[in-house]
Amino acid sequence: MNGLLTLTDLTTEKMLDLIDLALEMKKGLKISYPDKKMATLFFENSTRTHYSFISAMHQLDIKVVDVNTACSSIQKGETLYDTVRTLEALGMDGVVIRHPQDQYFKALEKIKIPIFNGGDGKSHHPTQSLLDLMTIYEEFGHFEGLRCCIIGDIAHSRVAHTNIEVMKRLNMEVFISGPKEFDDGCAPFIPFEEALLTSDVVMLLRIQFERHEKKMNLSKEEYHQAFGLTEQNVSKMKDNAIILHPAPVNRGIEIADAVVECAKSRIYRQMENGVWIRMAVLSRGLEGKL
Ligand code: CP
What is the pLDDT of residue 212? Predict the structure, then answer.
């Protein structure tokens, strides 16, 4: 098994190569794999990751088998290994998987075809981080010395955990902010006001109510009042600073409705870049170059 499971496994050079390739494809470079077949296997809901991987496959002329987990033998107790081994036996050249279990891929070590991780539990979301980095690079032309603050439900976020690790490797300064109850110590914590005033990249996170084991201390209204990115708070940001959010967004909680598509927001650019970066990842993965 190769493919892309975590960014920890990928050298910084390979990460930068994926961003370069994605930017080249965005400018018009055409790559095609008409003889390849790939499956998508999503055990958690997804709009962006699931359908941008499918869109990326279409753009690369890869044939797509989109497995409906609700109608497969998974419902009869088939194990993850047996499902993926079956897809391999059916002739797939690779599989994209999202699963709620942290490091689900450890059960798949005997699988020979490449596996591309679309998110595992609270641990890793490698293609989300790559598309975030691509969006930052497009904006600033470099990473060195940029200051990013990730704000919100850090403790439940695979996006935060993946980004913190790779941003540090790229010599960015990374901080976290928001309610202290979500501070899991993965990066230095700064007050919300300082995050707004000093960051080049303000990265908001969705409050992941579905992963909470106990009720959040704040009500949704209190959260928005204390830590929501409102128009007034956007006006405190640096002139060239940008807003990122992996989405889906909770409008009116971590972000005000009017801010989602404001001049500083790159949220829909992130989604566009998600297709290009996933094309780059699939291309390098299918060629055994990850
Ligand atoms: N950002 C992200 O992973 O979105 P989806 O859950 O819609 O894929």
Answer: 80
Ligand 1 in reach of 98 Cβ (< 6 A):
no
Four-CA torsion 280, 270, 175, 252, nearest 10 degrees: -150
Q: Tell me the whole-structure pTM to 2 decimals.
A: 0.96
The rounded distance, in Å, linking the Cα atoms of 119 and 121 is 7
Helix (H) or strand (E) holding 134: helix 126-140
What is the distance in A from the centroid of ligand 1 to the CA of 44?
Answer: 10
Structure tokens given for 113: 């075809």
pLDDT (tens digit per residue) in 87-99: 999 999 999 999 9
Band of the pLDDT at 242, cuts 50, 70, 90? very high
> How far are the Cα atoms of 100, 106, 171 from residue 120, in angstroms, in the given order?
6, 11, 26
Q: What angle do CA 110, 116, 117 make, to 5 degrees?
A: 100
Contact 122, 164 (CB under 8 A): no
Q: How confident is the model at residue 234 (pLDDT cuts 50, 70, 90)?
A: very high
- Determine the distance separating the centroid of ligand 1 and the alpha carbon of 53, expressed in angstroms: 11
d(CA 151, CA 139): 20
List the structure tokens of 76: 């009869």
What are the backbone angles phi and psi of residue 247, rounded to the nearest 5°?
Answer: 65, 160
Whether 40 is in the pocket of ligand 1, judged by its Cβ within 6 Å, is: no
Strand partners, 251: 255
Say yes or no: CB of residue 156 within 6 Å of ligand 1.
Answer: no
